[in-house]
Each structure stands twice: as structure tokens, then as C-alpha cells.
Design brief:
- The chain has about 400 residues and is of the alpha/beta class.
- It has 2 domains: about 80 residues, Roll (SH3 type barrels); about 290 residues, Alpha/Beta hydrolase fold, catalytic domain (Rossmann fold), CATH 3.40.50.1820.
- It contains 13 helices and 13 strands.
- The chain is globular, with a radius of gyration of 22 Å.
Length: about 400
């Protein structure tokens, strides 16, 4: 498994970052700017307690030398990154009985709280629970989003679900919004995925698909990895749209890392994902007091789902079900190479397409693009479900 030693700047929070020098010698010229706290840097050379680096993410000098410690306190910490992808083939996975018991217990606790109907509250609106369902669609939303991007009643998918009375949609709200607005946000993708699996634990007894958008693809991926580890059925297919595969190298992620950034920087990061949406209908999120009260805390937590995500599945068997990866043509942080990397995770069919003119968020939030998106989904949902 290929390893890359990266470091995180953990010091300098009260000084705007840490001091950088041009050379190894402690008397070499000092750079004009400081290296920002929270920056991720790649090790080029380590000599004693002097680190020669180049920046992966963060602000300040793009290359230079820093000390590992100041006055005995670490100001940078090593972060070993494993970028290995899946194994060469599909295959069985031994059930982790201890993990299975843990998830089952969590599922029982959430069931007592009626968490399915708290989180996926449109489950009942769209007809669930049905007397004799044949198929389920389990949905995972984007950062800063909610279940409503999937469950809006006017789409062709919602109308199909209401009419056939054989398909259930479980569009999950992550804690911290809607009916769960008083619950603590998740900022760890694996923990969130386990929570989602516990919510849906009893609902994987039928054929199903997963549908994730943006960071929802990584939540869905971890959901499926965990489901496989504890012996639960795999889906008929996965729609993992508008995001890069999880084993994409950290240093190649095109977005800026938000941890430790000031509010204005977080706003700019959000805008970078889809300037058309955030400069149009979506600009209301920046209005006060709602930005400070609601949106900033949500964005900070949700951004960590992908900013701080560590891929830990190198060498894991591939999946056997089809994977669909549709990219949005006008999305700023997506490239065809990034989407096509999902192909490595399946021995089944791989479907990579570009949604013309759509943006990362306008795909859901502008009527024409959403209509095209859902009309594209419907025939495939019919195919996988066998329900017309």
C-alpha cells in the first residue's frame, strides 16, 4: 500500500500561523508570511527537528522549512496517509461479529427513539411503511443539504413512488437539521455512516439502491463498507454522483480545507462549489442572523466530513453491483478523472456520464436541471426495482 507522510500544522493559532524559513538553518531568512494553522503539508525532507515541506492545503509560503516543536510543544504533527485503492477482485468478507453486535445495539436504541421517522420524515409522506414493499431507495445528501433534495413531491421519482405503492424512499437527514436540528452534528464520515446504517438497519431486507450526492457519496460508501462487514445485503446498484472516489489522494483534492478558517473564508469555500447557486437563490444562507446561527455551524461540521476524511480501505474487495457516477458539467471541484476513479470499486457495470450545464448544487436547486436529473434516474430505478 503506497504511503505518503503528511503533516498538519497544529500550532500558531494565536499568531496567525507558524514561522517559516527559507532554509534548514535557524538563521536562514524568514518568509514574509506565516504558514496557516490547520494547513496540511507534504514532507520533502526531515533533518532532525527541521522539516522541509510543500503545501497541500492552507495558506502561507508554498515551500520552506519549519521546526517540529517550539519550547518543547509540537507545532506540526505527522499524518500518515494511505492512498491504496481496492483489491484486484471482488470476494467474500468475513463478518465482524463484534462490530455487528455494536451496530445492532445502536439500531435498537435508535428504533426506540423512532429515529427512522425523525430522520427520514418523508418516509411516511411518500407512503411508507407499505404493506408489501418490493424495493427501497436510500438517499444521502450533500454538505449543507437535507433529505428534501430527494423527497420533494413534484419530481417524477416521487410521483412514481406514490403511484406504484411498491417502492419506499428513505431519504436520511443527518443530525443538526429539520426535526433533528437540536441534535449534535456529525463531523466524522465513518461515524455518520454507522449512524445511518443503524437508522436503516431493518430496511435492508429488500432489494435496494443507494443514491448519494457530493459528500453523500462518501457517506454511502462507508455505509456499504460497514454493511458488508457485518453481513448485511448489498444493493442492486449505487448512484454515487457529483464527487470523487474516496481513495483520491488528499494532496490532489481541489477544494480548500475549512478547519480553523474564519467565517469569511468558510463563505468563500462554500461559494467555490457552485457560484451560480450561491450567487443566486442560495445566497440567502449568508444573510444574518441565520448565517451565524444556522448555516455556519452546519457548514463547518459538514465540510469536515470530507476535509478530515481518511480512507482506510486499501486492498478491500471490490463490489459486484453496478456503480453510476454522474458529474455536473459546471461543477467547479469535479473533473472526469475524479469521477472515473469510482470504476475501480466494482467488477460490475460502471456508468460515468456528464450532466450537461448542471452545477454541483443547481443540479438539485434549479428546476430545469433537477427535472433532467430525476428524469434520468427514473428509468434506472424502474430497471433495478422491476416496478413500472
Amino acid at each position: 500500500m503506497p504511503l505518503s507522510t503528511n503533516w498538519e500544522v497544529v500550532g500558531g493559532g494565536d499568531k496567525g500561523g507558524i514561522l517559516v524559513r527559507e532554509g534548514q538553518d535557524l538563521k536562514s531568512p524568514q518568509c514574509d508570511d506565516r504558514l496557516s494553522t490547520g494547513a496540511i503539508i507534504e514532507e520533502l525532507e526531515l533533518i532532525g527537528e527541521r522539516l522541509h515541506f510543500k503545501v497541500i492545503s492552507g495558506t502561507g509560503p508554498q515551500e520552506g522549512w519549519v521546526s517540529l516543536k517550539v519550547a518543547g510543544k509540537a507545532i506540526v504533527e505527522a499524518k500518515a496517509k494511505d492512498y491504496g485503492g481496492p483489491g484486484d477482485s471482488a470476494g467474500p468478507v468475513e463478518v465482524n461479529e463484534e462490530l455487528k453486535t455494536k451496530v445492532a445495539a445502536q439500531a435498537e436504541e435508535l428504533k426506540k427513539k423512532d429515529m427512522l421517522n425523525q430522520s427520514a420524515f418523508k418516509y411516511k409522506v411518500l407512503g411508507g411503511p407499505l404493506e408489501a414493499p418490493k424495493f427501497r431507495i436510500i438517499c444521502f445528501h450533500n454538505a449543507g443539504g437535507a433529505e428534501s433534495i430527494y423527497s420533494a413531491p413534484a419530481t417524477v421519482v416521487a410521483k412514481w413512488i406514490k403511484a406504484n405503492k411498491a417502492v419506499e424512499m428513505i431519504a436520511i437527514d443527518y443530525p443538526g437539521r429539520d426535526k433533528l436540528k437540536d441534535d449534535k452534528f456529525f463531523s466524522d464520515t465513518k461515524e455518520l455512516a454507522q449512524w445511518c446504517l443503524a437508522v436503516c438497519y431493518d430496511k435492508l431486507d429488500l432489494p435496494y439502491v443507494v443514491w448519494g450526492h457530493s459528500v453523500g457519496t462518501w457517506v454511502a460508501f462507508e455505509f456499504l463498507m460497514l454493511a458488508r462487514q457485518i453481513g448485511l445485503p448489498m444493493p442492486k446498484a449505487a448512484f454515487l454522483n457529483a464527487f470523487v472516489a474516496p481513495h483520491w489522494p488528499v494532496e490532489k483534492r481541489p477544494w480548500k480545507r475549512s478547519k480553523g478558517q474564519k467565517a469569511e473564508a468558510v463563505k468563500e469555500i462554500l461559494k467555490s462549489w457552485d457560484p451560480v447557486h450561491t450567487g443566486g437563490a442560495g445566497k440567502v444562507v449568508f444573510d444574518e442572523p441565520e448565517w451565524t446561527k444556522t448555516w455556519e455551524p452546519m457548514m463547518r461540521a459538514d465540510f469536515q466530513l470530507y476535509d478530515e476524511y481518511e480512507f482506510t480501505h486499501a486492498g478491500a474487495p471490490k463490489f459486484e453491483f453496478p456503480i453510476h457516477n454522474w458529474q455536473m458539467e459546471n461543477a467547479k471541484n469535479e473533473t472526469p478523472e475524479m469521477g472515473q476513479m469510482w470504476k475501480e470499486w466494482t467488477t460490475g457495470e460502471f456508468d460515468h456520464q456528464i450532466m450537461k450545464d448542471a452545477g454541483h448544487l443547481t443540479a438539485f436547486y434549479m428546476a430545469d436541471y433537477k427535472k433532467a436529473y430525476f428524469e434520468k434516474m427514473l428509468p434506472l430505478l424502474k430497471q433495478y426495482s422491476g416496478v413500472e
